Backbone:
């Protein structure tokens, strides 16, 4: 007569399994805390280095600050150029990225949406030096006729006074290249946020007779507002810190001007200026360049922190 034995309820988990589970949880928690602490230490290390090495430039004048009266007279045109190029990039990239994200998430058939999403993501894998070469050898040269047209008809605006250089190396060209570079970041975040909009809300709007655009305007945009803002801010952070592409496209200078289609009065950016001058700098000039890096670090950190804060606030409300 065969006898069967039922497993005891208290034997479902052996002491060995319980011990292994507790050790695994402890190891994972320790690794997570250690990783977070390591990132904070690295960030603090960068900040301390910039403050210690760059603070000596605060009292510098003359040759130490490249002929300027003070460090602030040297930093201000570079800061202006950095912010202007980044703002131009966001004005171009933000609506384009949001539109592409909507096409991927709500309009295009699934095969086309997947292919388009893959192509947009591929833009993020292209090195910045390639963007710079593309910008100076293709975008800049092909935009010269458009710049001539803008100067001919809109020279009464301070943005398009000219003269237009034959090379096309202008602030507007740099902004366009930065817009393409920031496009995949903004698009990726926006399309994920759009896809998370509750289906019930969308279907309810459509059931009430709303068109697809009205449904997006009444349900998707309100739900994704914080995500869209954080995406734009993170894209802005990407544009602020770009170096090689801007260094190749933008003619270096230290002038403050809103003229976007000329090379003579277009200020360089902080990152590009450091890349172009650091190799030949020595002594007090190195401190000056490091101090400009500190200014860029503070601005980029503030922008990215604001973007994360907006995104976190939106998740908490949701």
Residues:
């Amino acid at each position: 007569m065969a006898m069967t034995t039922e497993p005891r309820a208290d034997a479902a988990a052996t002491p060995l399994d319980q011990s292994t589970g507790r050790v695994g949880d402890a190891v994972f928690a320790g690794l997570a805390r250690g990783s977070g602490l390591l990132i904070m230490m690295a960030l603090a290390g960068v900040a301390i280095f910039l403050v210690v090495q760059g603070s000596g430039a605060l009292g510098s004048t003359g040759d130490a600050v490249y002929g300027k009266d003070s460090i602030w007279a040297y930093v201000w045109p570079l800061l202006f150029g950095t912010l202007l190029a980044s703002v131009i990039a966001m004005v171009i990239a933000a609506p384009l990225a949001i539109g592409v994200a909507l096409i991927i998430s709500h309009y295009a058939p699934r095969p086309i949406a997947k292919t388009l999403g893959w192509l947009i993501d591929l833009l993020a894998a292209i090195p910045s030096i390639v963007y710079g070469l593309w910008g100076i050898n293709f975008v800049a040269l092909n935009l010269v006729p458009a710049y001539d047209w803008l100067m001919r008809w809109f020279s009464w605006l301070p943005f398009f006074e000219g003269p237009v250089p034959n090379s096309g190396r202008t602030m507007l060209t740099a902004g366009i290249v930065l817009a393409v570079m920031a496009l995949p970041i903004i698009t990726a975040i926006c399309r994920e946020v759009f896809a998370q909009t509750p289906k019930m809300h969308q279907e309810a709007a459509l059931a009430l007779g709303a068109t697809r655009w009205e449904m997006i305007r009444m349900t998707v945009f309100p739900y994704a507002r914080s995500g869209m803002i954080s995406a734009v801010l993170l894209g802005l952070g990407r544009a602020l810190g770009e170096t090689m592409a801007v260094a190749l496209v933008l003619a270096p200078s230290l002038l403050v001007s809103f003229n976007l289609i000329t090379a003579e009065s277009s200020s360089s950016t902080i990152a590009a200026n450091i890349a172009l001058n650091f190799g030949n700098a020595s002594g007090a000039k190195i401190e000056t360049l490091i101090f400009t890096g500190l200014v860029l670090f503070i601005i980029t950190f503030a922008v990215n922190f604001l973007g994360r804060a907006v995104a976190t606030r939106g998740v908490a409300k949701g």
Remarks:
- The longest helix spans residues 15-54.
- Residues 11-19 have pLDDT under 50 and may be disordered.
